[in-house]
Amino acid sequence: MAVKTKRLQEGSKFNDLDVNNDGVVSDAEMEHYQLAEEVKRQNRKQMHQRNMAWVALGSMVGFTAVMFTPVIPDERIQLLSDISNLFYLAQAGIVGAFMGFAAFDKGGMKSK
Ligand SMILES: [Ca+2]
Q1: What's CA 50's distance to the chain center, in Å?
Q2: Considering only CA atoms, which of 21, 46, 36 is closest in space to residue 106?
Q3: Rounded to two decimals, what is the model's pTM?
């Protein structure tokens, strides 16, 4: 009994997976593609988390700088003190969580 082979559809986006151009998308080529995509996804995720931490850090510095300018009157700072305390805690929490998870990802609890 002949083994029926599968073909990619005309103009398939997976044509590029045939890296060695032998006309066959091998299992190894499929797995290589999946691994590469997973690495790209992880890189995007880390980049977004890092950007989030930078924005949180920058917003704390920016908020503090604006609060010390004469643009904000003293009585308003008095009124905003409760909110600004929460703001600092939340932003510091984001930065702290990023650093914690970054250390955790480097192989703390993960053992493969
Ligand atoms: Ca191939």
Answers
A1: 7
A2: 46
A3: 0.71
**Which H or E run includes 1?**
none
Q: How far apart are CA 75 and CA 17, in angstroms?
A: 64
| Ligand 1 centroid, distance to 28 Cα (angstroms) | 9
Using the mean position of ligand 1's atoms as its centre, give its distance from the Cα of residue 24 in Å.
Answer: 4
CA distance 55 to 109: 28
Task: Dump pLDDT digits (tens) for 40-83.
Answer: 999 999 999 999 999 999 999 999 999 999 988 999 889 988 89
Task: Find out whether 17 and 30 touch, Cβ atoms under 8 Å.
Answer: yes
* Residues contacting 99, CB < 8 A, separation 6+: 53
